[in-house]
Amino acid sequence: MGLRQSWRIEPAGDVFASANGAVAPHGYGLGGLTWSELGGQAGDPGPSFSRLLSRLGMDWRSSWLDASGASARAGGFGLPAAHGTTVLALRFRDGVVMAGDRRATEGSSIAHRMMEKVMPADSHSCVAIAGVAGPATEMVKLFQTQLEHYEKVEGLALTLDGKANQLGQMVRENLAMAMQGLVVVPLFAGYDVHRRVGRIFAYDVTGGHFEEIDFHATGSGGRDARAAVKAAWRERISGPEAIQLAVQALYDAADEDAATGGPDAVRGIYPTVALVTADGFEKLDDEQVERSFSELIEARRLAGQAP
Amino acid sequence: MTIPFYVAPEQLMKDRAEFAQKGIARGRSLLALTFAGGVLLVAENPSRSLHKISEIYDRIAFAGVGRYNEFDQLRVAGVRHADTKGYAFSRDDVDARALANLYAQFLGQVFTHEMKPLEVEILVAEVGRDDQPDQMFEIAYDGTISDRTGFAVLGGKNDEIGERMSSSWSSEWSLADAVRGAASALSGGERELIATDLEVGALRRGVERRAFRRVPSDELAEMLSSG
What we know:
- The structure holds two protein chains of two kinds.
- Chain A has helices at about 1-5, 35-40, 50-55, 60-75, 135-155, 160-175, 175-180, 220-230, 240-255, 285-300, and strands at about 85, 85-90, 95-100, 105, 110, 120, 125-130, 185-190, 195-205, 210, 215-220, 270-275, 280-285.
- By secondary structure, chain A is an alpha+beta fold.
- In chain A, a hairpin with a 5-residue loop joins strand 9 and strand 10 (about 210).
- Chain B is of the alpha+beta class.
- The interface of A and B includes residues 3, 49 and 155 of A.
């Protein structure tokens, strides 16, 4: 065995410093694994990308956990961190629509005006994030990589339930950080290619995930967005109607919630709207979203509800 | 104390090489070639689920011949390398050359240090972005790495197949031309290869994310019959 262990591949000059400054035991050589380890013996990460990362000493969560533990001892997490706000998803005839505003806030000031909160998770699903922006975007990146990694290693994509469950585990692993204030609450939706329907999954900070039947919204303006969707949602609503409803719900959320951004005609920044159908994920272009908002604003003005 | 038999290093290497070559020559061949629409990989493989050709990353594919369990473990290691690198840096920082070098080091190590060399020959292909050329790296059981342009042949009988390819191959081929050209080079005209005998994958030129696509059997049958 001594001989086998001796030819571990070390990266040529590629090392990662971990949180405490120590050099990671392996780089990203061939996963830092020996031939016998590649053979599926104990410690093999299998198709899990996050397990592979922890093996390589590249798991970002450990460093945040250290930091948040230290801050808890010092009396709470006092760092300013950007927060993302309103995201929503609703089911329609051919799949799901997912939408989110573009604003990130730090306390009462605006941190970013064009943050993307709705992202494709893979070809037939998408994820939206509300909560602290840093860990949230990192979680999405890890989730996207995990889905692709699993698909490539196993030669088969996860089912939609499998993907939803996987994201739940990631949120749960984030619980210790959530307790320190770094809360991440995603919203997951996709087209189930086996059942041929759009499906939506909502999460809480503990990683619990619950399938929503028709629609859901989360974030600081989530309540207002939900109320707007609830008032107009119907079974077998068409794609264009669903898009219009999502735009309207975001508008209403921005109208009521200070942290939610509305359409920004001056800078040409509009909320993100994406569809997932049997044909896959598709993000609407800005012109189309802009038109939807103009129609909405025009209709409201005619009805005497000028903002 | 017992003194082990002395074996000359030349003899030891020769024995190992022969052992590996024998294992590889038993399997069927595999062909990779560049064509107008990207890089095509064609393997003689009657199995629909045990793949010889697979996706590694956005523009990178992997192909292996020889012992399935050995090259499949190399494939998984390659996916791990690529995904980790893309996650740590950016997707554009993952390239075929670095991966091919790692494979070469790894196979070289196993060849000299392990009881048994790996009985595999592998290929790492990358479709070029914009007007960058396509890249194909062939890595042998002993870690020898070679850079191929145009086409590459892996597995047994590769001289004959290579000769047939060099007389017919053109970089202007369409996908259907390339599939027919590869099938006829692999079969040599003595036997006919039908769609279910082949496993075909392509790295599509111009596709930014995940350019790899498996060509399904029905599409293959259509291309093979339309020639």
